[in-house]
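Components:
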Amino acid sequence: MRPEIEKILPSEMNDDVMSIGNVNCPNSATKIVRIVHISDTHHAHNTLTPLRPLSGNIAILRSTSIDSPNQIIDETGADAFARSASARLQMQASESNDSSFHKGGTFLSSFRRSHSSSTSVPPGDVLIHSGDFAWNSKAPGLFRSENFEEIIQAMNDFFDRFPHKVKIFVAGNHEASLEGKKLLSVQERLTSAVYLYNSSYTYEGIHFYGAPYTPFRLTTNATGFQRHSRSIAAHWREIPSRTDVLITHTPPHGILDLATDFTARKVPKLSSAIHRLLPKGPCSTCGIIHPGRSHWGCRHLREEVLIRIKPKLHLFGHVHECNGITTKNGVTFSNAAYKLSKQHHVFDYYVS
Ligand SMILES: [Zn+2]
Ligand SMILES: [Zn+2]
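Structure:
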């Protein structure tokens, strides 16, 4: 069960296309860039396949708004979005001569799952993987351990299968074999995707920035790019203020980051005994009592994101229990940590 800590979209609505960027003034938007976010595929990447744009149904749904509807899309915006999305999809349809597409109606939102495999990834302009592609670990025998060459080869094979114009990869704590490698030496070999390592990339005027770090945890053996508090804060301070789409592996603290503790997972009886001894009371972060779970997200990152950077979109993974989308202070947050039933999130970024 997912915790009801935040207003998280129900899973069946997570296929909807969220609108971000200049959505409140859709008339001034000149282009829509569709961003597809996946994360934490952990060696299941071979089960993800490209969804051919018109092989399934195009669902006729309203774009879903969540916490703050006006920040996502208003009524006027919804109509404009419907028209532009319709035009866009019809253009794709005529390019591929799929007559089944032209059945009328307003095409507002997503690719309905009923006609596609549950592991299909929708088409789009930019495909972003926010880390933990591998099960790589510093503890041999616990997880499959790949060397650098193997993981690069697997990533090239994976990204090459997808039709998106741009693919972006940011490493996670399971990418131990990328730790210590310079950006250029990885990028030279990773020919199928843009590797963001404390670096940025601009596409259609949208500024993307990616960094791989997660806060250090004693109970993990996958310690690639894990950092203690002070050094992680220094990395976040390097993120340019002018970032539209921020990609990290870790969530910010208190946002889609509630994880099951190691003892609750491995030794549930011991965990309940500990919790009986601890003082009872709501969590100081979210105000909820959640024994056996704690917030894994980074406090320093939260501050930087909500106060200084304020990107339109912050993409991450790492905490598998909190796959979802939420908004706060005008920032849309997406945790796409892999689950078979909800493997991707789709955003239409309005560029003016
Ligand atoms: Zn809490
Ligand atoms: Zn991770």
